Amino acid sequence: MLQSRLNDVKIYSNFSGKLTLLLAVIYGAVFLFSSSIFALDDNCSLTIAHGNSISLAINTTSYSKIERGNNTVSIACNLNEDSVISFVDVGLNHYQWRVNAPSPVKFSQPAFIIPKGRYTATLSLDSMQIHTPRFRLMSMGKFIWESQKSSLVMGAFYGLCFTLICYVLIMGSRLNDPIFRLYGAYIFCLCGFVLFQEGQLNLFVSSQYKPLLKHAYLLSIGLTVVSATWFMLSILLVDKQWPKLVLVLKSAAGIVMLLSILKIPTQQAQLSYLLSQIMAYITLVIVATIFVLSALQTKRKIGEASLVFAALSLVLVGMVFRVLLVGYSPFMQRYALIFAFAIESLLLAVAVSKRIGRLRQQKQQAENEANYDQLCGIFNRRGWYKQANVLVEQFNKRGGVLALFYIDLDKFKLINDQFGHDAGDKALAHVATFLSSSIRKQDIVGRLGGDEFAALCLFDDTQSAEEKAQQLQQQLNTLQFSHGKQKVVIQGSVGRAFSQHPITDISDLIAQADKQMYQQKTLS
What we know:
Elements: H1 2-38, E1 43-48, E2 53-57, E3 60-61, E4 69-79, E5 83-86, E6 92-99, E7 103-105, E8 111-114, E9 117-127, E10 136-139, H2 140-174, H3 178-198, H4 210-235, H5 243-263, H6 269-299, H7 305-324, H8 330-371, H9 381-398, E11 401-410, H10 412-419, H11 421-438, E12 444-449, E13 452-459, H12 462-476, E14 480-483, E15 486-489, E16 491-499, H13 507-523
Antiparallel strand pairs: 1-2, 1-4, 3-10, 4-9, 5-8, 5-10, 6-9, 7-8, 11-13, 11-16, 12-13, 14-15
Helix pairs in contact: 2-3, 2-8, 3-4, 3-8, 4-5, 4-6, 5-6, 6-7, 7-8, 10-11
């Protein structure tokens, strides 16, 4: 009996095992079959009317072009996860979802969430010219990373622009140089152009104001071309060499500005496209011409032309990535021109700084030539009066005794007649050296003309001033120098005038000292 039951259990176990295996095979086959039927391709297919069909995988970009005018794009996606599809709207008149519009997300470019699973939609793009929308399909994680990277790069660029503009405002307020205004205007317009082109304002502006942003973008193009042309031509110092060419280039930049304004109210796609082409070619001619001029000025070692040449070279490289090598690197295609503009701005800032240093040096040299006597190495009449007024202001504030010593050489004409004018020049230089070494650094000595010198000193009391006057008179008549094999003796008279009360005009002291000096000559 027991044996019979064990046999029944054994038969049942064998049957259950075979049934379980059969069910596992059936379920596996059903799973594989259903997987093959319902498997997600994890990509999107974009079909452009009158164009090609594009297969867009996750985290890839399409560089297919659309035609001028209205283009219909059919989108069919089969995704394993929620993703984001974006495209570039610069160059489009407008875009519109006709069927099954996806949810938009805030991004510098138009971006929409494509839900996982199967999804279809239809998009209409109205382009003013042959355009590369650069459709990009990104996973949600990739999209977040791209947003953060874009914010970092563009934030750094705008921060650089803000810093350079502040630099221009600070330095421009100190130095009255028009190159600062031109450079500041160029940086401001360039920053605005990039801001409108890259679309960062789309994050903060509702869709109803998007047309205004496009109008501002068109204006920024013209303003950037005008400001860049005027600044580049000014810093290259080409006005005197090629005045007619400079006038032509500035006029061409003005035409680009006018065309950018005319594009704003234009509704016809063909006319808008024509204006865009004219603007593009004129701008290209301007850039190429200024590039050649910078190369010529670099060769001639004129001013800061070498830095301008390097800056324009970088911009041209960035334009190559932007326009020609669109499929080489998505990162370089988008940011190469931004990096080029950033480095260009820094190079031009260095050029402006070098120009400041050069102008300061030239200004200091001109100031020295205007205020110093080249023969004697001391202040001339202009420079002496300028510095004397400063010392008078100090005297009026702190008090003391203001002493003016007026020195005139005796028998100076005799030195010229007997030994020649070279000896006369040596005598003047010798007296200037003596006076400079005899007074303190804070006092003022200068040659007022001919053989007349003046020294303005500030003392604490009258006795110190009298002692200095006697010292100058005694030592002046002991001066001599060698001229060839002969000794030339110098003689002179020192007049003095003191003031212990504030004065408004130093001319009175000069007149008193001059009168006292002639009395001294009469006694000698």
